[in-house]
Amino acid sequence: MTGTGHAVVLGAGFAGLLAAAALADHAERVTLVERDVLPAQPPWPAGPFCGVPQARHGHLLLQSGATALERLLPGFTAELSQAGARRLAMPGDLLALTAAGWLPRTGEASHAWSLSRNLLDSLVRTRTLRRPAVTVLARTRATGLVGDARRVTGVRLRSLDAGTDRTLAADLVVDATGRGSAAPRWLEELGLTPPTEERVDCGLVYATQLVQPPEPLAHDFPSVSVQTGAGHGPGRSGVVFPIEDGRWLVSLSGTRGAEPGLGQAAFHAFARALPSRLLADLLELSEPLDRIHRFGNTADRRRRYDRLVRGNGHWPEGFVVVGDAVGHTNPSYGHGLSVAALGIAAFAAELDRRGLCAPGLGRRVQQRLAVAGRAAWTFAVGQDLLYPGVVGASPTTADLRAARLGERLHRAAFRPEGRRPADDALLADLVRIGTLTASPAALLRTAPRALLRRAGAASATASGAASRAAVRVPAVPAPPLTAHERSALSLARAVAPV
């Protein structure tokens, strides 16, 4: 498609690259402004891009995000597979221990791609910069917008090497500069009201190490997640992300008061203190390939640009804010990449429908971005409010009721005490909701029946408790490994150095 006009995208991170790719179908020129060095051609450097604060930590691209990426970059999921990213059936390829027990491994209700951030960004960068319309302006920082309260007509730029300033005219400016976005201040400079900001911080800190698992486990062992539940003291969790080249990223995290340490001994001790020894055993069988990296900027935060554009609210033509510059959630839930992709897919749909210079484009895009991120925000905040020491808000009675209902639903979907089968339909809905593939409204179909069945089972359990008093069930049962996985784990232990 041949476009007209000039679009400027500020920031060459994940959202900025996708925005540039979407705009390349509608603009004659797309200028990608990046403060760091960004090579114009592959091969890309082996290390993580310095502008990505979480580059060395684990990442999931959920089915919803992969579908959005496929719309933006046709053939992208095939490229993921060819590059070695691990496709995980959810919940079949996941060993997950939650407050409700081990997640039943019942095939595939959804799926996710597990890979390093460097691999994902390299693939997106290659596809985007291959577009003839896209050029890169590196080592350059945006310092403000050009225009007035009615229309943005360009952007002020500063060369970080020469220290010189210039103005770049544009029909559309897209702010994809991430968490440090200066868009609220820029809007004030144009005489507009900045957005209100919502923030919830449970104090989560996570530490990650790249490791090489033993050969028997390197290529098809499932992802592992072990966690304590919200509402039961500080949260502690650990995750094994299988990534390309048969390597793992092992991430340990804790909320305020339970943060993991950085030293190797503290890292292993934290893993051993989790409710199941499985993750600690896997870590001890593996060889470290890098030092431990820590990250603590994990608060849920969103800037309500969507409220500025409602009704008669003022929003300038020619300006859009996307990605983490709009909002981001606790990364432990794995939603960030997918929300960004869904948001840019919504942006692309507006461009397809009305074009680059259509009146009201920015208003409509900000509203659609808010919708794209709403489910992830509700999910994350609903969990984070329950941890002790949360900053920014306190759980309401409605929040606590929702949490209790969520716990009941998970226990109904799982196998409480191993004495009855899982509710596969409810479990599938919970997995799809958690991976942003379905709306919570899906529970209206499966939840009532499952809760009634559980209530009946609880009544029967109470009436027959005396006859089962001698049955002793372990607090944390063994993980639901397949025979092949047990064999691989045994072999890995056998060949491990003493």
From TrEMBL:
Residues 1-24 form the signal peptide. The keyword Signal applies. Gene3D superfamilies: FAD/NAD(P)-binding domain. Keywords: Signal. The keyword Chloroplast does not apply. This is Dehydrogenase (Flavoprotein). It comes from Streptacidiphilus jiangxiensis.
